[in-house]
Amino acid sequence: MTAKELRQKYLDFFKSKEHTIIPSASLIPENDSTTLFTSSGMQPLVSYLLGEKHPGGKRLVDIQKSFRSEDIEEVGDSRHDTFFEMIGNWSLGDYFKEEQLNWIYSFLIDELKIDPNRLYATVFCGDDSIGIGRDTESVEILKKIFAKYDIEAKDIDSAEKNGMQGGRIFYYDAKKNWWSRSGLPADMPIGEPGGPDSEIFYDLGADLHKHENSVFKDQPCHLNCDCGRFIEIGNNVFMEFRKTADGFEKLQQKNVDFGGGLERIAMALQGTDNVFETDLFLHIINKIEFLTGKKYRENKVAFEIIADHIKAATFIMGDDKGIAPSNTDQGYIVRRLIRRAIRYGNHLGIKDDTWYLAKDESWTKEVAKIIIHDYKDEYPELDRNANFIIENLKEEEAKFRKTLERGLREFEKIKGNINGKTAFDLYQSYGFPIEMTEEIVKSKNMKVDVDGFKTELEKHQELSRTASAGKFKGGLADAGEETVKLHTAAHLLLTALRKVLGDHVTQKGSNITAERLRFDFAQPEKMTAEQIAEVEKLVNEAIEKKLPVKFEEMSLDEARKYGAMGVFESKYGERVKVYIIGEGDDIFSKEICGGPHVENTGILGKFRIVKEESSSAGVRRIKAVLE
């Protein structure tokens, strides 16, 4: 079964269960200062999980573009990828465990024809410290499901100590079977939703654990032992709790949040133990083989890093928000992905052996063209933004080539053997992977402290993880009053910018905290002081008029005819909320948005632009506050 067929089967199955199909949200979170990227299907739906009404109703299904920067260093093990598609379905206060578990196993076994003997389940063992008990309800439902396929499903404790014990359903603690975007219950910020989950694992074969080269061969094998035998393909989250200052309380509604890895399910369906050998990567891997003259199976780590990183960078740059490589925020991650791919391409000799490219021409763009072609039907924004993607890849590759040349000159200054710190500095500052440094020192009869390099790299990765975790300080569902005020001010700002600068101005991204608004918009030139003053004036006039703020639900076609601002690409005829600021003949702004907003502009206070600066090529950034 192809990935395209898998996508359609999933959407059709849950549509038959009265779910509304909704499109993938942007990879760049809207008005969310706590995370750089959309990393799961539920992230754009937080306000609805907390009780807000969704235009599509209480049952939703989609396939969401997702990116997890914390997995960058994991790529190369044949199962991790930073960009992935997450199939998801939701119950917003409608059905719960009984329906969800029966439906998802029916989809996997009856629709996809996955062998039920290869499927295993995990459940939450409970945690007295947070007052949430053992999930015996899910266990009883799962036993009945497996019994339909003549499988006796024993439930097992302590598999991490005692192994499989002939079990089919396994209890684990909150480290494995509790889900919130911030991790463990103790790490969740106040207001954050979460709950116990039941994960679905696929068995790739016992030989993977017992292989003589496996570091796990003398340890008990179980679903979460990471030996490679079992791979998680889906997670049913029963989101019914919310963190409070006093512990956990029940949400006003019980939710189901299912997320499944499209690439991993495709892997199971296509008879491989490797996501990079599915049809989702086939053409990309073929192109890299053509560019390098080398074979994937003989250079798996390098090929997987190149394929994954260029795909992820292509999707981020291909988003309508127009993210380009830079030294900050999302742009920094794009730069890191591209340059890491180039480093591994260099290691494979890609520039030396690529005979058909002109001297100094970009090779990464050739891989990106394959990705755009393969995904443009599902994600038409890639085709819309193809020139932006290709031009940025060409420019970034040229910049990095110069950086590497400087690094080689720096290398020539080093006398004697290279210690771990110096090797890491060459990696961090000039993009030299340790393999490249090893090759150079070998040719000079020098030595490099590889263990010392690994120690420095681990320190750096730990700092990066800490910084990444710090991004999540406020909880994604930040609907505090000051944030809501600035969210509404962003709508006023966009309209004012279009009035002053012209209709070419579109929103390219925003980042809002309780203290300030950051707003990126399409604009080729720096704004003048007079233009900034005029924008401020228009926003403050709208505030002083005390305009009402309301929303109406309508189809995308209706929103377009109404003159609302927003992205109108959707294959599913979705219904949207259009927020209207003003009334009658005095409407200031009409924009598609999920909310929330204030009810009247009069409470916003005085709007002031603090800074106007470049964000990336053709994109300017405004930072503003309400006083």
Please sum up the structure shown.
The protein is α+β, with helices and mostly antiparallel strands. It contains 21 helices and 17 strands.
Count of strand segments: 17
Query: Termini, distance in Å?
Result: 57 Å
The CATH architecture assignment of the largest domain turns out to be 2-Layer Sandwich
Quickly give the structural class: alpha+beta
Q: Into which percent range does the helicity of residues fall?
A: 25-40%
- CATH class identity of the largest domain: Alpha Beta
Structurally, how many domains make up the residues? 3
Low-confidence stretches: 468-478
Mean pLDDT: 88
CATH superfamily of the largest domain: Bira Bifunctional Protein, Domain 2
List the helices and strands and how they pair.
Layout: H1 3-15, E1 20-21, H2 46-49, E2 59-67, E3 83-92, H3 97-111, E4 119-124, H4 136-147, E5 155-156, H5 159-162, E6 169-172, H6 174-177, E7 178-179, E8 193-203, H7 207-210, E9 230-244, E10 247-261, H8 262-269, H9 282-292, H10 300-318, H11 329-347, H12 350-353, H13 364-375, H14 381-384, H15 386-413, H16 420-430, H17 434-443, H18 450-470, H19 481-501, E11 507-512, E12 517-522, H20 529-544, E13 549-555, H21 556-562, E14 575-583, E15 586-592, E16 607-616, E17 619-626
Parallel strand pairs: 1-2, 4-6, 5-6
Antiparallel strand pairs: 2-3, 3-10, 4-8, 7-8, 8-9, 9-10, 11-12, 12-17, 13-14, 14-15, 16-17
